[in-house]
């Protein structure tokens, strides 16, 4: 008699109670962090995740991802990258309660605060053109700051985001985001309609394009197939609008560098329309280049690859 072993799942009520408990612990820690000097709080956040992250299931996911992405590296090199990635994640979490202190970019005195900006002229062109545009980014450094910057300087942007699995954290985070980041659309049914509406009125759409999407095409990412959300390519084909890439780089001393690149010359099919799969592969390759430059600032803990076959799906308009 064969016995099938499945994953043991906790009762929903117990899961909800555990989520509530974890959320309350997190909220208390963040309130305590707010009482500390910014630098000290961020250092503590980085220290906690560096030292506690290795006990989590996500640590094993990250180790597997790094080994597959950088097989030529030694185990010690990959360990140093993962330590940096946990440090970055801890700092990013604490930075939520200090956004009002950290974000101090002044276009009249660039470089005077915590931020350097490359592409300010592009930003002003996007903001003042009155034409639709798509901006993509990745989970690098503190990726939330890009939306904060856009809202602070009156860029009409609607950002697509994935809520955390913990419903209590998601509710709190949603309130914080909406106070500082403008229009937000969760990844759920109807999201594509909301994004299309924003572009139709001449607005801009912000997308994070580096997470697994089970219905997306399997594209090349670090030499492996990774399923990718094709929303950017679909919207770019429908509206034939400009596409830009934006990223955050964490610098020493609690500082950041914001970069805005583009507009990109997107691949087109024989009929002259934007090629969805070709565009998504181009964007994915750009993100790979960013991650290779600063691998210790990317979210390796996410299951980006899931043993995909070698043949990529095709998404058409």
Tags for this entry?
317 residues, alpha/beta, 2 domains, seven-stranded mixed β-sheet, two-stranded antiparallel ribbon, 11 helices, globular, disordered N terminus
Describe this protein's structure.
Helix 2 (38-52) packs across helix 4, helix 3 (57-69) crosses helix 4 (75-95) and helix 10 (231-239) crosses helix 11. The chain folds into 2 domains: 12-97, no CATH class; 107-294. With 317 residues, the chain is an alpha/beta fold. The protein is globular. Residues 1-7 have low confidence and may be disordered. The protein has helices spanning 12-34, 38-52, 57-69, 75-95, 99-102, 120-129, 145-152, 167-180, 191-200, 231-239, 276-293; strands at residues 115-118, 133-137, 157-161, 183-186, 204-208, 218-221, 224-227, 242-250, 256-261. The strands form 2 sheets. It has a 7-stranded mixed sheet, with helices on both faces. A two-stranded antiparallel ribbon has the order 6-7. It contains 11 helices and 9 strands. Helices cover 46% and strands 15% of the residues. Strand 8 and strand 9 form a beta hairpin.
């Amino acid at each position: 008699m064969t016995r099938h072993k499945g994953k043991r799942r906790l009762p929903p009520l117990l899961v909800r109670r555990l989520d509530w408990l974890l959320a309350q612990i997190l909220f208390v820690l963040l309130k305590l962090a707010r009482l500390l000097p910014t630098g000290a709080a961020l250092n503590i956040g980085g220290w906690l995740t560096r030292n506690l992250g290795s006990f989590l299931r996500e640590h094993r996911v990250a180790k597997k991802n790094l080994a597959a992405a950088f097989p030529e590296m030694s185990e010690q090199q990959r360990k140093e990258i993962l330590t940096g990635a946990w440090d970055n994640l801890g700092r990013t979490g604490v930075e939520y309660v200090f956004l009002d202190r950290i974000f101090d970019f002044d276009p009249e005195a660039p470089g005077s605060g915590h931020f350097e900006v490359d592409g300010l002229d592009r930003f002003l062109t996007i903001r003042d053109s009155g034409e639709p545009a798509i901006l993509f980014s990745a989970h690098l450094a503190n990726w939330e700051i890009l939306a904060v910057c856009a809202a602070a300087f009156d860029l009409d942007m609607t950002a697509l985001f994935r809520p955390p699995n913990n419903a209590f954290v998601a509710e709190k985070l949603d309130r914080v985001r909406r106070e500082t980041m403008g229009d937000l659309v969760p990844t759920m049914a109807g999201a594509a309609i909301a994004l299309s509406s924003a572009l139709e009125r001449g607005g801009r759409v912000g997308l994070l394009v580096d997470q697994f999407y089970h219905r997306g095409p399997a594209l090349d990412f670090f030499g492996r197939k990774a399923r990718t959300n094709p929303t950017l390519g679909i919207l770019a084909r429908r509206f034939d609008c400009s596409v830009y890439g934006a990223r955050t780089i964490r610098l020493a001393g609690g500082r950041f560098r914001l970069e805005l690149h583009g507009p990109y010359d997107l691949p087109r099919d024989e009929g002259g329309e934007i090629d969805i799969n070709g565009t998504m592969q181009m964007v994915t390759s750009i993100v790979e280049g960013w991650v290779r430059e600063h691998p210790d600032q990317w979210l390796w803990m996410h299951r980006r690859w899931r043993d995909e076959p070698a043949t990529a799906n095709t998404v058409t308009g």
